[in-house]
Amino acid sequence: MKITAKGRYAIHILYNLAVDTWEAPVSVKEIAAKSGISVKYTEQIISVLNKAGYVASVRGHRGGYRLTRPNEEYVIGDILRLTEGTLSPVECLANGENPCPKQGHCETILLWEKVDQAIRDVVDSVTIADLISWNCDK
Fold first, then answer.
1. Ordered alpha helix ranges (H), 1-138
2. pTM above 0.90, yes or no
3. Is the alpha carbon torsion for 46, 49, 54, 59 positive or negative?
4. CA 116 – CA 77 distance, rounded (Å)
5. Tens-place pLDDT, residues 27-36
6. Of 26, 60, 72, 88, which residue is least crowded by CB atoms under 10 Å?
7. Could you report the per-residue pLDDT of 75-112, keeping only the tens digit for each?
8. Which domains are present in the chain?
9. What's the CA dihedral at 37, 39, 40, 46 to 10 degrees?
């Protein structure tokens, strides 16, 4: 499993919105600059985050985006599933149904199930608040 730029950047965007105590909504241009992402790509990702309710848009001259919930409620696994779709390391585990012709007698399925569980154990136990805490401890 490889996390794409979209997934990584979504986490960067939410992290940067969370770590800075913005008193006003943040423009896409500011978000892009802070996250090191192009404005165009930031717009695409922020649109996905907005539709999912992770950020809220504020219209007007001083408009922009802001987080919609406490940092502890932004679970990395949820963000990655939103942007990546599945986090499963193999296709046969991706959607819950195993269409593999080797189903029932696959020599390696236990390995892939363990890898899948390990990934979920990590990403589902880490939040944006944890990332902030880890970076503050440096």
1. 5-19, 28-35, 39-51, 76-84, 109-123, 128-136
2. no
3. positive
4. 12
5. 999 999 999 9
6. 60
7. 999 999 999 988 888 888 877 666 677 777 888 888 98
8. 5-136 (1.10.10.10)
9. 80
